[in-house]
Amino acid sequence: MIKYVTFSDLDDRLVKQYRNAINLAFPDIILNSQVTKKYWSRLEKYFPHTQLFIVSEDNNLIGFMNAIPLFWDQSLSELPNKGWDWLVKKGINDFENNLTPNSLGGLQIIVTKEYLGQGYSKLLIAKGKKVKENFGFRNFVIPIRPILKYKYPEMKMKDYMSLQENGEIMDPWIRTHLRNGAKIIKVCENSMNVTGDINFWENLIDIKIMKSGAYMVDGALNLIKIDVKNNFGEYREENIWIYYA
After folding, report:
1. Domains located in the chain, CATH noted
2. pTM, whole model, 2 decimals?
């Protein structure tokens, strides 16, 4: 029988499984996010009650949802293009400035490899909606990262979203959310931003960069833009703002 726990309930073994699951779920470019490195420990410290985990009967991690409370009193259509990065910083800064939250922001849902395809992501989505209700939050918003977009790094997200399969949106992660009652708000065009000098990017993509231009990176949803003259490269990842009423 499965059980639901929060971050405060995790023992050292489950914390290790949790960290490992994150590392396995994302490509190196995402794991090098400056926002994650700066703020993630504070997310877990300030909001252990919105980090939700499903644990198996034999005390193994099945999956989890990381979420952050925040204050947002504008139209959802006004949510910023900086998406995921903004959401993390907004929730942390609101807490540190004693601003009472009225919304819940979903950051990621991960199911461990052994339990994929068994409906656990739907259970975590449902749990997130329940947290929204329990705390009386107005909104539950998520900048989602479509799981097959990495196969189309040169395609704009708005065009990717139009790809269909059997009369539905092709991407299974977008489809899962829509089937569970989510509504699409808009594309957030600079949701996850990673910058670095040429050496940083050469180490990440394992090639010698000799000229400026656009480069592909394993697992990235979009191309990185390199400016050799100014010793600078930038990754601007598009995500999709969705909400659950």
Report:
1. 3-191 (3.40.630.30)
2. 0.96
